[in-house]
Design brief:
The complex is a heterodimer of chains A (418) and B (121). Chain A has 19 helices and no strands. Chain A is mostly helical. Among the domains of chain A are: 108 residues, no CATH class; 87 residues, Serine Threonine Protein Phosphatase 5, Tetratricopeptide repeat (Alpha Horseshoe). The longest helix of chain A is centred in the first third of the chain and has 29 residues. With 121 residues, chain B is α+β, with helices and mostly antiparallel strands. In chain B, strands 2-5-1-6 form a four-stranded antiparallel beta sheet, covered by helices on one side. Classes of the chains: A mainly alpha (418), B alpha+beta (121). The interface between A and B is small, with 9 and 12 residues. Chain A: Keywords: Sigma factor, Transcription, Transcription regulation.
Chain lengths: 418, 121
């Protein structure tokens, strides 16, 4: 690859991360058709790849992409207007788009961009869609994740995901699911639904760190947008705090060779100070009051963040927060994480007993971090062969290269220590 | 404007031998629903009827387009909650339709909201 090609690739990747959701959101408002909007944006990126390779990266890539997308949307509206014998509303849109022409200011400065994005998120997380469809649509349309990768994240096949996306988009169009911001009557319900999906996006970003570096940033962007829409929703602020505090660790989460670095071993100097400060301030504001599951997770992240090093972590407080979280949100993954806190407070054997309580849960049957957590506790309790067997099992289940590199490293350490 | 068929499914055993009071109360509930639709901007009731019980239904089945239909006694699908009535509603979008469907009187069942397929659009 030529150096010039690299520059184009980097610029496109950055633009994709920052501009994809905004471009789709703006275009879907104009076209009122999610499928068509996605196509326009995709075409614009494809032509950027071709044009930038010959002409170089433009001074303002975002503005270039906005214009390219807008031109495609205008063409499509013109075609539709002709096909449908000039529907007055469409003609109006074409005129407006043509009159506005190329944007004079780069995207990001337009005032209603955040609103466009929110409308798109709320469209994709509409309660009339199935929960699976909501997550798939959000990943695909809002985050711009390719269908094949959406399938990987959701642990299904690509054809299943493609069919799910097509079905959901067809329902949006034919059932008349509107692109709008919720009013006071349904705001709580709609924001709560959107928060669930954004939380899943955040989880996907952190559970498969090798998958897409931009996913966490997009989840953060969406959490911010939801806080702006509904500042009275404490869980929206809790999710924003969680996104900030987990995102702050991004730079420290991977070692130079690409393997995962666990929280305890991370270089805390590499955490993003601004994100940490903002996240901790939010948690301070939220925590004295009864908290929902996102706020509690943020509070746990805050406990880890506050400690100057792993050994200084206030584990009894972390365990209390996990107890509250488990009561609020009794899932096997929360129970597993709680078991790790139990081990820190009452020793590895107590932790192992807590893990046994959830080990049989079928939902965790293919979850590599169950055997990985047990391996660590077995190692610490002196059961070396049990630890080796568990790490091998975890390695068998783990698909992500970064996770695998970490597990391989642990296995080598055990072999060296023998 | 999109149109939606509200299919009202309910436990029909309640209506085996209704008293006058029960009928009056049910009519009042439907009256309130009609008022709610009238008050919703851009929405209107285009039609709607109550159906006689599924015991009075007859179903013609055929397994191919040119096959001779077989007549059976009873509804197409036997379910605990039976289709007991419908409304044809015009609404701005699905959100408004669902908001109205929440106000649609059903005691122990549900309302299925189906968009009408308009040809030529």
């Amino acid at each position: 690859m030529t150096p010039g090609g690299d520059a184009v690739g980097t610029a496109l990747e950055q633009a994709h991360r920052a501009q994809w959701p905004v471009l789709v959101a703006t275009t879907v408002r104009v076209l009122r058709d999610l499928d068509a909007a996605e196509e326009c944006v995709q075409d614009a990126f494809a032509s950027a790849l071709r044009t930038w390779r010959t002409d170089g990266v433009p001074a303002n890539p975002a503005a270039w992409l906005t214009t390219a997308t807008r031109n495609r949307a205008t063409d499509r509206l013109r075609r539709l207007a002709t096909e449908r014998r000039a529907l007055p509303a469409l003609v109006g849109e074409v005129e407006r788009l043509t009159r506005d022409g190329a944007p004079s200011s780069p995207p990001g400065e337009a005032t209603d961009e955040g609103e466009d994005l929110l409308r798109l998120v709320l469209l994709c997380t509409h309660p009339a869609l199935s929960p699976e469809a909501r997550l798939a649509l959000t990943l695909r349309a809002v985050c711009g994740v390719p269908t094949a990768q959406v399938a990987r994240v959701m642990l299904t096949s690509e054809p299943t995901t493609a069919a799910r996306l097509t079905r959901a988009k067809k329902k949006i169009a034919t059932a008349g699911i509107p692109l709008r911001l919720p009013g006071p009557a349904d705001r709580h319900e709609r924001v709560a639904g959107a928060l669930d999906v954004v939380h899943l996006v955040l989880t996907c970003a952190h559970e498969s760190p090798g998958a897409d570096d931009g996913l966490a940033a997009r989840a953060l962007l969406l959490a911010r947008a939801l806080v702006r829409l509904a500042p009275e929703e404490t869980e929206a602020r809790g999710l924003l705090a969680l996104a900030l505090l987990t995102g702050a660790r991004d730079a420290a989460r991977r070692s130079p060779d690409g393997s995962v670095v666990l929280l305890a071993d991370q270089d805390r100097a590499r955490w993003d100070r601004a994100a940490v400060a903002e996240g901790l301030a939010l948690v301070r504001e939220l925590m004295p009051h009864p908290a929902g599951r996102f706020t509690l997770q943020a509070a746990i992240a805050a406990e880890h963040t506050r400690a100057p090093d792993a050994a200084a972590t206030d584990w009894p407080q972390v365990l209390r927060l996990y107890d509250a979280l488990l009561a609020e949100w009794p899932t096997p993954v929360v129970a597993l994480n709680r078991a790790v806190a139990v081990a820190e407070v009452d020793g590895p054997l107590a932790g192992l007993r807590a893990i046994e309580e959830v080990a049989a849960d079928p939902a965790l049957a293919r979850y590599p971090w169950l055997p990985a957590a047990r391996a660590d506790l077995r190692r610490r309790s002196g059961d070396r062969s049990g630890a080796v067997a568990d790490y091998r099992h975890a390695l068998f289940l783990a698909a992500d290269p970064a996770d695998r590199a970490f597990l391989q490293g642990r296995l080598h350490e055990l072999a060296d220590g023998a | 404007m999109p149109q939606y068929l509200f299919l009202l499914y309910d436990d029909e055993s309640r209506w085996a031998a209704p008293s006058d009071e029960e009928i009056a109360a049910e009519m009042a509930r439907h009256g309130l629903f009609a008022e709610a639709v009238a008050a919703a901007e851009g929405a209107q009731i285009l039609g709607g009827e109550a159906l006689q019980s599924t015991q009075t239904a007859s179903t013609l089945r055929r397994d191919a387009a040119d096959a001779e239909p077989l007549l059976t006694d009873g509804p197409f699908a036997e379910t605990k909650e039976a289709l007991g009535g419908y409304y044809l509603i015009e609404a701005r979008d699905l959100d408004q339709a669902l908001e109205l469907a929440k106000k649609c009187p059903v005691s122990q069942g549900g309302v299925e909201v189906r968009p009408i397929w308009k040809f030529g659009e």
